Amino acid sequence: MTELELCGRTALVTGGAQGLGKKFAEYLTAAGATVVIADLQDDKGKEVSDAVGGTFVHLDVTDDASWEAAVAQAVSESNGLDILVNNAGIEVASLFMNLDADVARKIFDVNVVGTSLGIKHAFRAMGPGGAAGKGGVVINISSVSATIAFPALSQYSASKSAVDRITRIAAMESGKLGLGVRVNCIYPGLIPNEMGAGLADELTAMGLFESPEAAVGQVVELTPSGRLASEDDIAEALVFLASDRSSFVNGIGLPVDGGMGM
């Protein structure tokens, strides 16, 4: 990461109150950006925004009006919007035999509809005539599970595959309409954070692995780099995609998975 390469830019990070979103906020801030944390968790979100010297906006990514208000607040309080990180997402493991339709719909509502609404309001704000109006960058967070057949993750994997398709179509639309907004996505590998540990426990409870350690071992065995991903690995890639170093990188999915999804 080049120090202060994002100086003068404003980034909005959804799901920024914890996990990867919090790490993204730290890295974007270190690169010089002003960061707006957007989350449903007001207390945690404000703690992160205070820690990085940014601001907080309440956001339900599944609600159109919530997006409109959050983006307007972010632009007003931070003097623009240059980077949107569509990070908010949920992961619920389930075998097909136990599939709950309401849970499946919730996964798609957050991961697919939420990402789509983020692109909508970023385009409106960043494009010519928008409240920010200088173009910018949208980075969507997909998953290595979009590229592999891992058991019990059917709905999550499908939703993250959709994020890839959405990314490419959004990049094309932006180009055709002259919005000046690049759109890319990242496929993170499995990270040993709270979400990753929870998944290992769920898979074990379903009888797919003998223990959480065995589940993690299977992931490592499938990964040429021989280890799990770290939040820092993903955040480094994010800063690259947000910066001018990737100025001709558009409409792509960048695997940061140690080769697991190749």
Detailed description of the structure:
By secondary structure, the chain is α/β, with parallel strands linked by helices. Helix 4 links the parallel strand 4 (83-86) and strand 5. The longest helix has 26 residues, at 101-126. The protein is globular. The chain has helices at residues 19-30, 42-52, 64-78, 101-126, 154-177, 194-205, 212-221, 231-242, and strands at 10-14, 34-39, 55-58, 83-86, 136-141, 181-188, 253-256. The chain has 2 domains: 10-189 and 229-246, NAD(P)-binding Rossmann-like Domain (Rossmann fold, 3-Layer(aba) Sandwich); 191-228, no CATH class. The chain has a 7-stranded parallel β-sheet with strand order 3-2-1-4-5-6-7, sandwiched between helices. It is built from 8 helices and 7 strands.
Instruction: Indicate the CATH architecture of the largest domain.
Output: 3-Layer(aba) Sandwich
Series of H and E elements: EHEHEHEHEHEHHHE
The share of residues in helices is: 40-55%
- The rounded distance between the terminal residues' Cα atoms is 25 Å
Major sheet attributes: 7 strands, parallel
Per DSSP E runs of 2 or more residues, the count of β-strands stands at 7
CATH superfamily of the largest domain: NAD(P)-binding Rossmann-like Domain
Number of discrete domains: 2
Spatial order of the strands in the main sheet?
3-2-1-4-5-6-7
Just give the CATH class of the largest domain.
Answer: Alpha Beta
What amount of the residues lies in strands?
5-15%
CATH topology of the largest domain: Rossmann fold
What form results from the Cα inertia axes?
Answer: globular
The class by helix and strand makeup works out as alpha/beta
**Which regions are unreliable across 5 or more consecutive residues at pLDDT < 50?**
none
Give Rg in angstroms. 18 Å
Average pLDDT over all residues? 95
By DSSP (H or I, 4+ residues per run), the number of helices equals 8
